[in-house]
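Page header: ASSEMBLY MODEL / two components / 570 residues total.
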Amino acid sequence: MPESERAALAAPYDVEAVRKDFPILSREVYGKPLVYLDNGASAQKPQVVIDAVSHAYSNEYANVHRGLHFLSNAATEAYEAARENVRRFLNAPSVDDIVFTKNSTEAINTVAYGWGMPKLSEGDEIVVSIMEHHSNIVPWHFIRERQGAKLVWVPVDDEGAFHIEDFEKSLTERTKLVAITHMSNALGTIVPVKEVCRIAHERGIPVLVDGSQGAVHLPVDVQDIDCDWYVMTGHKLYGPSGIGVLYGKKERLAEMRPFQGGGEMIFDVTEENVTYNDPPHRFEAGTPPISQAIALGAAVDYLTGVGMDAINGYEHELTEYALSRFTEVDGLRIIGPATAESRGAAISFAIGDLHPHDVGQVLDEQGIAVRVGHHCARPVCLRFGVPATTRASFYLYTTRGEIDALVEGLDRVKAFFGI
Amino acid sequence: MTVNLDSMYQEIILDHYRNPHHKGLRDPYDAEVHHVNPTCGDEVTVRVKVVDGTVEDVSYVSQGCSISQASTSVMSGLVVGKPIEDALALQEKFLSLMQSRGQADLSDEDEDELDDAVAFEGVSKYPARVKCALLGWMAMKSAVTEAEASK
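Prediction written out in full:
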């Protein structure tokens, strides 16, 4: 049994203890306790992450992979140690399979430009789901525009559920790539990515998994999933912004062209020619986000310490609780799965005909932060016929009391607008 | 900082939101524009009819929050019947009001001209909502400019 599971069984999840690790959670807004339910947009940071940034700049900062002096070595060691932390977090075979990027968006663009552009041509098909974030849509539109490739959309049903048969039906002889989310940021729907990979690989089709949300809520083992690429972003994972991760299978990274050119990513540059460094450095042009990478390393270790299974179990209970409380709010319509099965801890909803901006504004007045808007997922909003939704997303420090506050807040919203 | 929702959601705004004026798309028209707020997905389609340099009609369909709906309604009421240059000058005035971050120093004359639009002064304190209030006004400006150019 993994250590995290043992820990989860040994002691009940202590959310109050977890909350003490996050200094911002004790602050007030407008004189009211902060109820932060906009986690899906960005996570708050534990003290260990804040300390890691501070420690890096206070004690061991210099550029990495460039100098021979003491600080340069110290910074390089810390930066590369973070790569090992991330490798462990994802259970990747090797640190050489872990590329640091700016965020998920840059990770996906790295694959789109490095693999998609040279390998895809007129009529080739890229399968994506209707609930992708724009970061996993627009890079593929670029390939559609420039190479004439075609986007094929896997639907979801009216409950927002993803059906593996629909996915299988979307594959054709022209399918060259599957790019799919692990968990929808707009609907909360979880995609059975291991099954997706198995089916795609039977046909020799590689799969990119967007783990921007998935890696936060679900234990991830990239070898078990068997995906060709897995991307995630640091700031949603309790780490800093400006740092993301591209995991790629060794053979996939090896066949990719570099996306950006610059320092560190080369073997040699002459007047006539350039030769490229091996992965992961081939894809890390220029000075990387050094302290951000180090702090991301601290963030994933923190999560491993709490235990991803324990986090997942706790968030599942919270989601069940929220879904059940939401049934008490007249006029509330969930956009996405109405039960906690096959969904993660992000719930989009509508209140009557009220616009999400108006809902969010009245909630804000009560210190409750939610996301309002299209969640950078316009195709799925269009699918459900809504311009935008209100989304509450729960992280490892969210409490039942905060969900109660949200429900009370929604009553105030309705009273304010007289519905 | 404290918030006072009533400063944003003035009764006038809620009235226009519940009972929008001039709503619906009408013929004939000289220009039609479609504007969206890409950060939230709000959208508006505005038509204008211009006769002898005067805005004869403004009609629109829109989808969005109470602020954008009410603002578009107020805009249409103020602009219809005005000479084009006055309509555009009023648009400028409203833009300045919305960029004032709650620090607008309106003269009596400004208040008279802006009329119901003065109610949006409170919205200017909320940077995330300023674009909502401006959506219909920006569309009107484009439509009027387009209509004028076509003549």
